[in-house]
Amino acid sequence: MTEQLTSPAHRPTVWTLTSSKTRNDPWGEITLVARMTGPDDHVRTVPAYWDGGQTWRFRLSSPVPGTYQLVTESSDASDAGLHGQSAVLSVSAVPASESNPLYRHGPINPVGRHLEHADGTPFHWLADTWWMLMSERVSWPDGFKHLVGFRREQGFTVGQVVVGFQPDTTPFDGRDANAGGSPWHEGYSSINPGFFQRADLRIEHMVEAGILPCILGGWGYHMLFMGKERMISHWRYLVARYGAFPVVWCLAGEGAMGYYLSKDLQGDIRRLQESWPDVTRAVQAADPWRRPVTLHCRQTSWDDTTNPEILDFHMTQAGHLPNAIKKSIELLAVGRDRYSDKVIINSEPPYEGHSGTNWADVQRYSFWSSMLSGASGFTYGAAGVFQANDRDRPTGNRPDGGAFDHVFWDDAIHFDGARQVASAHELLVSLNHHLFEVHPEWASIKLRGGHEAYPLAPRAYAAGIPGKVRVIYMPVRWYHWDGPLVRDLEPGVKYKAAYLETDNLKRHEIGVVTGDANGEWTGPTLPHMYDWVLLMEAV
Q1: Same-domain pairing of 450 and 478
Q2: What is the pTM of this model?
Q3: Crossing angle of helices 416-430 and 142-154, rounded to 10°
Q4: Per the CB 3.0–4.6 Å rule, which of 199, 378, 492, 536 could disulfide with 470?
Q5: Number of Cα atoms under 13 Å in the Cβ half of residue 427
Q6: Distance CA 190, CA 515 (A)
Q7: What b-and-e string marks burial along 277-304, b requiring 16 or more CB atoms within 10 Å of the CB?
Q8: Buried b (16+ CB within 10 A) or exposed e, 403-433
Q9: What are 319-372's pLDDT values in tens digits?
Q10: Inside any domain, residue 99
Q11: CA-CA distance, 257 to 219, in Å (whole number)?
């Protein structure tokens, strides 16, 4: 009998089948796909995932309304419960009442240097770092829903989350497990659907809350333990289970980072770099929805794989030490020179509160300097949150040492840097940041000597839309209040100018300004010694 399925465009629905056979390792022994023929006669091959026992499921979605015919093919054609089964999926238009942007506007794709929904609506990436939030250390439902809701209310749009073996752990030490167990059974004997059944609840809730899941398959070094073929199998499973959702794929965290206690660190790095292209191609081949693929990195995604050209967008990471902001700008400059037409995300700036450092002032500096230097998006992180450190169930020690931070996730979500970064993000969204051009020549600031005293010598960061809007960030300069020198102002264009306090965006109006005969204008004295944004909007 042909099963009848319905769903609105973009929203997934599930088709369940029962195998006629009992197997020891169903996911490892057979494959199951459905040929899905759409109203335009285009055929896509949709993979199924094993969900325990004799149960297999297809999670299905389509962006285009219409009727879709599905017929299954199993690698074991004698399995009457799986092979040759049929269904009809009727996809309706997105309802006018749909308020979730991920479903109203559709999944996310990179278009040039910015991200867009399927309908062309710009998507602005502001992520929080949730590496270990598939574990039970942030409880389901209360803890997880509280965290997701709090970040969504602040204005975050993405969660970077590992759905597999996590960072800072040894395989099967229990910290990667949830109530359903570890992602794989001991010794990687077979994949464990119980883990993913629990993860389903969290991924689906993220999407329903309007938070885009950036799904990582694990931390890079885990491929050294499980092997490339099992990592590919793990990724085929993720694609089958979650690809129908609006998601983006991130192959791994710190893709080419060797294990903490490696005996051959350089060899491990090389083996990881050489393996990721095969994993990338396997993900892309398995995914009928063609969700974007990237790679979190030690410093840059293009250095952590031997074939970065097949990634859909790129990431950088400058780490958490005092030189991190300087390094962020340097990495972005390299990336923008090499990939002038691709999205680059600052995917791991200094975490707030990490080792008792990197507080709100560092978060502001990191955000503004990145977003005005060519970053297409920004990822925030907080100590206690990224590792899901719970007061009753602490995360514990890294394999090579002690614990990271003595702060708990439900306290750390209130670090004020998150609020300040989210407010800054909201401002840039309102100014159409996706259309911004980087123009460091637009502004400069003075410094009364003492450059050597700063980890990064303060300078002006400027970007905007010529003739329409300019945004200039000025880091704090000790005992210095001079306004910036603004250059290359367009003849005849008048700008309404204001200084913005960076911790609350309170405006200090300057008035309407124009350039002199040389196209220059000098801002007035800063109201007080702080870091500031100069906002100039054409009138």
Answers
A1: yes
A2: 0.97
A3: 50
A4: 536
A5: 28
A6: 68
A7: bebbebbbebbbbebbbbbbbbbbbbbb
A8: ebbebbbbebbebebbbbbbbbbeebbebeb
A9: 999 999 999 999 999 999 999 999 999 999 999 999 999 999 999 999 999 999
A10: no
A11: 9
Q: What is the DSSP letter of 178?
A: B
Q: What's the number of domains the chain is made of?
A: 3
Residue with tokens 């006018």: 96
Domain co-membership, 25 together with 163: no
The pLDDT tens digits of the residues spanning 50-67 come to 999 999 999 999 999 999
Which residue from 156, 173, 157 is spatially nearest to 165, judged by alpha carbons? 173
Strands 66-74, 32-37: pairing kind = antiparallel
Q: Where are the alpha helices (DSSP H) in 289-379?
A: 324-338, 360-371
Question: Do 285 and 361 sit in the same domain of this protein?
Answer: yes
Q: How far apart (Å, rounded) are the C-alpha atoms in residues 336 and 319?
A: 19
Q: How far apart are CA 343 and CA 266, in angstroms?
A: 29
How many residues are there in the chain?
539
Same domain flag for 248 and 310: yes
Domain that holds residue 501: 439-538
- Upstream peptide bond of 95 is cis (omega within 30 degrees of 0): no
Provide the edge-to-edge strand list for the sheet that holds 495-501: 437-438, 461-465, 469-474, 532-538, 495-501, 507-513
Q: Rounded distance, CA 98 to CA 107, Å?
A: 14
Q: What's the rounded Cα separation, in Å, for the pair 404 and 420? A: 24
CA distance 350 to 235: 29
Q: Which residue has the tokens 């890294």?
A: 398
